[in-house]
Amino acid sequence: MRAEFVVIGAGPAGLAAALAASARGVRVVLVDAAPAPGGQFYRQPAAGLGAGRPEALHHRWRTWQRMRDGLAAGSVRTLTDHHVWCVERTPDGFTVHALTGPGQEEPAEVRAPAVLLATGGYETVLPFPGWTLPGVVTAGGAQAMLKGSLVVPGRRAVVAGSGPLLLPVATGLAAAGVEVAALVESTAPERLARHGRALAGKLPEGAGYAARLLRHRVPVLPRHTVVRAHGDDRVTGVTVAALGTDGRVRPGTERHLPCDTLAVGHGMLPHTDLAESLGCRLDGLAVAVDDEQRTDVPGVWAAGEATGIGGAALALAEGHIAGRSAAARLRGTAPDPAPAALKARRRLGRSAAALDSACAPPAHWAEQLTDDTVVCRCEEVTAGAVRAALDLGAGDERTVKLLTRAGMGWCQGRMCSTAVAGLAGCPPTPARRPFARPVPLGVLARHDPQEGLS
């Protein structure tokens, strides 16, 4: 299949970019792994579930309706259930390689001179004793179950960790009938207050969440953390404790909260696999872009969480800017940025940076890990094994990986890399992978040997 502009990812950034480029006459193909557009933020329940009020599960529902209607009425070609594993450079542009079918084993290709990477982000969960028990889910996982399947992970839940995602998860579960025993947030209120000016625009949204938590009688425990999850066959409760100003657990503050579900998350990281395989420059852990959302690889744009975690509103602004820029460059005209989108990007970017600075996980979380705490779930590598590797001289993620196999499993370190880096005392580093997801050998064998994979 051929197009002028391939957008990878149908979340807020990808949708905004596809619609903006299509409105300017560009032939756009929108590729996404999910069964329907929307991404995590606008994840929809299957039609067969008969959701009476799906808007109750979402924020900015009218924005989604406008984009959904725009897709239906426009000329964007949408390819769902397409799992992109590689973007290959070719003499005339790029070839996007994807897997389709029930087993994700059938190859599909889209060729175009320009590509947008709107690949989103993924959650970070820092380990603690008991975090592998059934009933312990990620905060985003609990939200996805509710939005996509109209089911809840349990009857009595604790929502814990750090970052703004915890608020919609706690209020969403409570509204769905779950008894939320507590919202346990490691961030201290004074840290947020220090960024009051940058976060001023978030006050109405924050007040709305506070009102809902109050209405559902959800206790909020700021500057607290989960010390341990308890249970044999599944989680039956958690121990939480207060944090001191140094980020360490304050002795004597522990309390037990009975629950059958723990939804936990410690922020998000950008998905950069495709960008890295194309050779795009990274700024820290995010894809580096210019004012038009262009990467340093000609013909490649990036927008949304891949360029830095900032939320749906920022992703919409970045996607709109990228779509307009790509349309102008493809048509050989001067870029025509939207002033409103540029202004929103600046304002929301400041808010995102402030939240990222304020909502850092506890500085000494690793001290709570017992040696038998599993760190890498795929390869069942424990904190004790990682510490033994450090005693042997390992000082970075890669060396720990070579000595322990941490990060060599199915998720390729997405779940454990942050924890391994924390235990090693080094900052997380991007993992360079040739493919963004596992690929059957048969698909690679059928690839044209004359073309190769760059």
Automatic annotation (TrEMBL):
Stretches assigned to the FAD/NAD(P)-binding domain: 5-318
The keyword Oxidoreductase is annotated on this UniProt entry: yes
CDD domains (alphabetical): GlpA-like_Fer2_BFD-like
One Pfam entry name: Fer2_BFD
Keywords, in A-Z order: Oxidoreductase
Domain named BFD-like [2Fe-2S]-binding: residues: 374-421
Origin superkingdom: Bacteria
Entry-linked InterPro entries: BFD-like_2Fe2S-bd_dom (IPR007419), BFD-like_2Fe2S-bd_dom_sf (IPR041854), FAD/NAD-bd_sf (IPR036188), FAD/NAD-binding_dom (IPR023753), Metab_Enz_Cyan_OpOx_G3PDH (IPR051691), Opine_Oxase_asu/HCN_bsu (IPR017224)
PANTHER family: ANAEROBIC GLYCEROL-3-PHOSPHATE DEHYDROGENASE SUBUNIT B
Protein name per Swiss-Prot or TrEMBL: NAD(P)/FAD-dependent oxidoreductase
